[in-house]
Amino acid sequence: MANTLQELRPASTAVEKDDFVIPLIDFGPFFSGTPSDKHAVALSVTTAFKTSGFLYLKNHGVPPSVVSQAFSASAKFFNRSQEQKDGLGWTTPQSNRGYIATGREKLAPLEETSGINELRGTAPDLKETMEIGREGIEDLPNRWPDHLDDEGKDFKETMLSFFDTCKTLHRHIMSAIALGMNLPEHFFDEYVDAGDNNLRLLHYPSVRKEVFQDNPNQVRAGEHSDYGSITLLFQDRHGGLQVRTPNGSFVDATPIADTIVINAGDLLARWSNDTIKSTRHRVVEPPKLPAQDSDADSLESHPSRYSIAYFCNPNFDKLIEVLPGTYGEDIQVDKKYPDITAGDYLVQRLSATI
Ligand SMILES: O=C(O)CCC(=O)C(=O)O
Ligand SMILES: [Fe+2]
Asked: How large is the average pLDDT for residues 195-221?
């Protein structure tokens, strides 16, 4: 049995502050290792989700060239005129597709969404995003720029392919979670095969440093937890992502080349009867650079930052019932949540922030 302390220990540590650790996990053996290697990876992944709620993944099977192609198509998209982007605007939480201009969405913790309009006014998120949903849903078209020009056609092709690549990785990670929770490896397959996921391209425009000096509440993206099952986050090298530790302080989730930051969302926490944690995070002014890059520190503005978040969800029509093994008389834990369909849960959450 692979359940020894040694194998529970993740490969290495990516982020550490006080007792809070975000591991860097090598996913390679999950694909090609022995059954016991695979089990060890699964336990590392699940342990990370149960403790910090976050992990960094390497050897995840998404080639660096595929990631850089997605980043380059994203940068070209945000470089379009405001008029073209507004012409592809986001409309409703039900559709959750299209372009969202700076200041429209204000991410906030669930219990604070009532004050959201006030926050939107004083310190709007300094970001613009493009939301891409599952392709081919009747009445919910993606807002592609393919009718604009060839670059728009390339954008569509790149993003559809990236969506599928991420969808496959989602399935593998859910298999790892299943094994790590003593469920059959393919337990979640029927919950994730539809790919009701959301690909969000993010652009944090270049911003003058005095904006942060003048307003201590100013952030690039407000503190929040994600809504779905897991999020695959690809970040560029600029930094600014921070994760909240249990004592309420924040720790930098510093970019590590060729890794994906993966965090659990609220619906997975609920599904797991809160054995898995959905941890709050935010994006702030980038941290000061190391001495050798100090030239950039003397500039008046921070450069643009790009990131790509792939929000994974269970199929919208699936009923989410608290997972077996996370409650019951034998472990003396109550079932904390009633059943809800994934789609109903997610539309409720999205409606609160826009
Ligand atoms: O841009 C990032 O690094 C994080 C974005 C994020 O957390 C989100 O969009 O939910
Ligand atoms: Fe997030």
From this structure: 94
